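Narrative summary of target 7.
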Amino acid sequence: MDIGSYLSLNARKHPTKLAITCEGRDFTYEQFNDKVNQLANGLLAMGLEKGDKLALMMKNSDSYVFSFFAGAKIGAVVVPINFRLTATEVSYILQQSESKVIICDNEYSTLIDDAIEQASIFAQITVISVGKSSNEVHFSFEEVLSSNRNEPNVEVDETDDLEILYTSGTTGRPKGALFDHRRIFNVAVTMMVGMGINPKDRLLHLAPLFHSAQLNLFLITGVILGASHVIHRDFHPVETLKAIEKHKITHFFGVPAMYNFLLQVPNFDEYDLSSVLRYGYGAAPMAPELVRKSMELFKTDRFFNLCGLTEAGPGGILLDPEDHVNHLGKGGRAFALTDARVVDSTGQDVKPGVVGEFILRGPTIMKEYYNKPEETKRALVDGWLYTGDLAVMDEEGYITLVDRKKDMIITGGENVYSIEVEQIMYEHPQVLEAATIGLPDELWGEIVTAVVVPKQGEEINEQEFKSFCRQKLASYKVPRKIIFEKQLPRNASGKILKYQLRERLKNLQS
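Modeled conformation, tokenized:
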């Protein structure tokens, strides 16, 4: 079955069950399906056809969910776009994906106009605005909705393409990972097995729905199962805790930065969070000390580390609660349906404890990078996805990611893996956030440089901080340079943009 068919199925099986609640608006599964069908039929009437690309540039909302599933039901290929991008970056994605229609929040309509103006290689793209746009040429979301609530008359197969997910672009321009319906259904199966998501669950959506983890792992999996969804437009720590208490959320997923902010909420203990059965974290490395503090504050050990990447659905490796006891800090072992290895430059398995490249194989892996055959050929080799992540595997098969290939620091001929240094820095009681990068140095080649954000109201002594690190790290791994900042540059997935830090700090050096 295609992904849209599961929504239709649940509308028939559980018509009165709560499907979505968003900003005071509630929709049963029957109402959810009706809205999706109205939009799907409206898009068909506008001329969007099976196989055409439908871009979405919106914050989390019920309209976002309706738009995604409407695209799925008519066989369109949905292209979620990061709403924090500039017009130039959006223009690149619209061109590269060959999008025909874009649905956007009204606040981004001017930016979309600028992006389209820059995109000179295609003639026209239809813009649908959620909310009144200042551009009279744009269609409004409401006027596109058809009065026809019947299922759209389009045959969609599980082998048809469903979405193009653009990588987070931590090293430059993003690439579009292409997935069909069957691959994304397999992603849902891994979550049912790995985190036990089931029809009785109530899922809170905080991370942006353009991000593969929130979209595929939780929203689509939950809709396939007929679970209930609470959607927040933005992440606010206090509002998050209120929502968990009010809606009796059973599954919570957050990127490490979200957990960090939640830990800073005053009077945390006043909120009743007992409904949460499982906490997931991922999308970026989470320091063991931050996991320990989160377990202590949330009063549970039911934590799952979801360690994967967009090109795998996302998928990769999982550390379940039982494994946190003896393996905290590791990524885990392969998801259900997935095979994982650590290999050398020739593709041969390395010995336990030896650093190599983390590679994956399985039915959730992308078909290709859209319209990028050379990049696809380098990433997909003999059925294996080469991730560009450096990792080690222990004797029991647990994999630990140590760095991105491009982020590894070589100082005085020694390899330093940034994640190891960052985990130690997070143990310092005055540190809110930290990143490790290499900066050019005539003597050492590169020097280990720490970029640190102190907790509010705290002032960190540089020499004391180095002494703290020296107690826990080999001397060549201890940061030689400490830079204090008010915040770190991150993408919407929560990943620190180290290339931006490197470029900016290199320029300050010169």
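The chain has 16 helices and 27 strands.
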